[in-house]
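Example record

Each entry pairs one chain with its bound ligand, 1-deoxynojirimycin.
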Amino acid sequence: MMWYKNAVFYEVNVRAFADSDGNGHGDLPGLTQKLDYLQYLGVDCLWLMPIFQSPLRDDGYDISDYFSIQPAFGNVDDFKVLVAEAHRRGMKILTDLVMNHTSDQHPWFRSARSSRNSPYRDYYVWSDTPDKYPDARIIFVDTETSNWSWDEQAGQYYWHRFYASQPDLNYENPAVRQAMLDALKFWLDLGIDGFRADAVPYLFEREGTICENLPETHAYLKQVRAFMDENYPGTILLAEANQWPEDVRPYFGDGDEFHMGFHFPVMPRIFISLRSQSKEDLVWIMNRTPQIPENCQWCTFLRNHDELTLEMVIPDKREWMWQEYAPDPRMRLNLGIRRRLAPLLDNDPARIRLAFALLFSLPGSPIIYYGDEIGMGDNIDLFDRNGVRTPMQWNAGPNAGFSTAAPEDLYAPVIADPQYAPAKVNVESQLADPDSLLNTLRNLLAIHKGRPELAWGTFAWLETGDLAVFACQRDWMGQTLVAVCNLADTERAVKVEMPSAGEWSDLLSGRAWLTDGLELPIHLSGSQYLWLVKSWGYAAETIPGEPQVGI
Ligand code: NOJ
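Structure tokens for the complex follow.
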């Protein structure tokens, strides 16, 4: 069952979502209580950011015990309840799997640094000089100056691709390879549906290379996949490989490595297209996106818990993106932008809706970052990426309904900017408003789910004669959908090249258009989007609004 090929994913930061015991941190029981909400939205699969024991120097991406849960978030029993309750609602659960590194507080590293004779010394990558692997780039350029850090106790340098508090594991060591499989097994035995595998390009290092995407990394990942297929059929692996499409392609192997991979380069190009009001960059990246095996799927997104990465854009465009979307230098981080979706799009409802419609019109299973479905804001005064990880806004009450703790005891402050504060932006009020962003998205998701051609149909561009108007044809098992998005915020009159003549209906508004040739003249308002299908396949009664033949 390839459920992931037509699923909508939702990224949850457990710490930020719902606090059930009033300690100021979101937790697993809190998330369980909110599953009905996620089901209402139409989410099929949750991806939980790391929930394992951790000193939280990198929000849990620094694990100090792969077999227990961060006490503030709950315990393994709470986790079992969450999994059971999600499954009861037909939802799947992925957890983050941080394979590349541990926390420096992990007992393995504590032991390793304590003596050259430690049985764990070889779990990490050591050197007497900081000169090895000079071609490996630094990823956290704003905080780290080298991939090597001197460890006084160890008397050697250790290798780390991220913060110095996250020493890289040594995958040359068979014991490490086995230890990671043991961790996988523990969580799979608890019934989860798979993993979002963190930072997979960096598992192995080799002199004379950039230490990314090495064949030995792929070989190990294939073993992980084989282990899962053999023992936990139906579970999936989602790759976090922030690479060009041609470098992500090998992570799908011959359908025997990752089931899914994030499509990193398409993401900034959605923002480029929206701001430049031209589809040029989107066309370029889609045309550069290779075919993937039948049992694989892209995972597409607008935002996530990190900075909006601009690693996969050329320096000139990066500079342009910074100017357009991060005018205040504090909005910039590493090679990216640390802002949420709504502020990036000037809190303009039409543009935010268009961004989602555009995302859902592209191939891939989309993922929504918690809070973006209600248009939450960010807080650039918070350190690093914390500004996009603030408490979920459930209602207009104290602490946005996130927690009963005193405000000063929250893990992070609730957004205070009046434009985005809970009084203005919250789930409760949006649930009550049929035209809210939340309900608009819910409607898009429902239609998306019933139209597998959107997620995994073939993709072909359609001519519109206007760079500001995106149109594509999506086909799957004899069903065709034509997506049209006006990237401009002004009206456009275009002729869309259609796959066939006849009556075409918009699944979103119920309006219909008739064409006797292959050109459909159409008048679009600013930021308007349409999902057109042949009228004979169209169930008018399920669509709100008056179907009519127009324009
Ligand atoms: C990628 C994660 O998305 C990010 O949040 C984290 O800091 C790094 N990997 C290191 O684990």
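The chain has a mean pLDDT of 96.
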